[in-house]
Every structure is written in structure tokens, then in C-alpha cells.
């Protein structure tokens, strides 16, 4: 019987690559520290036919929720943030989300969201009483189900 190896949240990382087009966003190198979103849901309509205790369920197409990637902020990112700000809502990126092993080496398992539209930029927030790292976050609208590479 094979031993199942569970992954810690720190073992899921992401990177993005700008997609060439009318508006090409800047390249943000390195991995993002946090990945959230990308849930797949489908709306349904419940139809009650007279005399039935339970409804019939009509299906609808599935949708993928926005994906948010977070990176720890450092002064080198300020120039990139200034380049990202004007292309929000216009630039497309390919997103790759990797599973890694305990040494944070890529296990060759990835989720790929091709042609995701950059729809949000959250700049670093400040708090004089906090020692927590400052972060930036990019939010992407997803137009299809992720591919497995």
C-alpha cells in the first residue's frame, strides 16, 4: 500500500507569464507566496412540477471563480506595481500553479489558467504597530476550466 503524502499550504506556489496582445502586462518574475480562488461552480435551476415533492434540477454551465495571487512586498516591486496599475482590466496572463515537495521542488504537477484577465491590484497596506510582512495581490478573472500539465 502506497503512503499518501499530504501537502502543506506552503507547498502550493504560482507564477504568471504575460500573454502577448494589444496590451501586454509587465513580467513579474518569481513565485507568488499565496494562491486563493479558482473554485468551479455551476448554477442550477430547480423546477417544481405540480404534485411532486422534490424538484427537477436543470443544469447551467460551470464558472471558475477569480484567482488571487499574493506576493510579499519589497521596494523592488514598486516599479512593477507602477507598471501594472494602468493595465488592470486590459492585460492577460497565463497562470501556473504548482504543487511542490517538502524541499519546495516542483513535482511536475500544475494547474494552468490560460489567458486570465488581470482585474485587480491590491497594493501594500501599512500598519505602524505590525511586524507582519506587507503584501501585494493580483486578482485574475478566469475564462475557462484549468488545464492539467
Work out the helicity level: under 10%
The SS-based structural class is mainly beta
Question: For this structure, what is the CATH class?
Answer: Mainly Beta
Strand content: over 45%
Shape field? globular
From the alpha-carbon coordinates, what is the Rg to the nearest angstrom? 19 Å
Q: Can you characterise this structure?
A:
This protein has 149 residues and is mainly beta. It has one domain (12-148): Elongation Factor Tu (Ef-tu), domain 3 (Beta Barrel). It has 1 helix and 9 strands; from the N terminus they run E-E-E-E-E-H-E-E-E-E. The strands form 2 sheets. Strands 1, 2, 5, 6, 7, 8 and 9 form a 7-stranded antiparallel beta sheet that branches. A two-stranded antiparallel sheet has the order 3-4. Strand 3 (40-47) and strand 4 form a beta hairpin.
Question: Helices, strands, pairings?
Answer:
Elements: E1 12-18, E2 34-37, E3 40-47, E4 56-64, E5 67-72, H1 77-84, E6 92-100, E7 106-122, E8 135-141, E9 147-148
Antiparallel strand pairs: 1-6, 2-5, 3-4, 5-8, 6-7, 7-8, 7-9
Amino acid at each position: 500500500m502506497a503512503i499518501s503524502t499530504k501537502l502543506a499550504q506552503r507547498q502550493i506556489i504560482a507564477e504568471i507569464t504575460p500573454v502577448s496582445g494589444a496590451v501586454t502586462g509587465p513580467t513579474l518574475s518569481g513565485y507568488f507566496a499565496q494562491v486563493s480562488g479558482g473554485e468551479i461552480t455551476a448554477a442550477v435551476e430547480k423546477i417544481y412540477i405540480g404534485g411532486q415533492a422534490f424538484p427537477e434540477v436543470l443544469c447551467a454551465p460551470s464558472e471558475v471563480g477569480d484567482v488571487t495571487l499574493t506576493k510579499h512586498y519589497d521596494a523592488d516591486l514598486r516599479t512593477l506595481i507602477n507598471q501594472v496599475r494602468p493595465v488592470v482590466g486590459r492585460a492577460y496572463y497565463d497562470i501556473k500553479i504548482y504543487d511542490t515537495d517538502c524541499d519546495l521542488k516542483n513535482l511536475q504537477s500544475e494547474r494552468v489558467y490560460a489567458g486570465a484577465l488581470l482585474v485587480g491590484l491590491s497594493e501594500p497596506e501599512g500598519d505602524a504597530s505590525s511586524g507582519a510582512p506587507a503584501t501585494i495581490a493580483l486578482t485574475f478573472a478566469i475564462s475557462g476550466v484549468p488545464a492539467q500539465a
